[in-house]
Task: structure prediction
Amino acid sequence: MSHMGLWGYAVAAMVLFIGVYIAQVIWTFSARNQTVMERGGNMPLDVDRLEPAASNQAARTGDRTTTEVS
Result:
């Protein structure tokens, strides 16, 4: 890239990448987003909010499904 005079694009892309990365890290660890991050971290453990998929509805009610073998 240096022989073609395109080194400036590589430097600009790297500076842009580093700037976006630093902004993302600051946004992630800011105190303002603490509740959002805690809620997202607890989502896999929050079974009350989970609804079974349509294929599991029959299994939950005790009905037979087409995938069961008699």
About this structure: The mean pLDDT is 77.
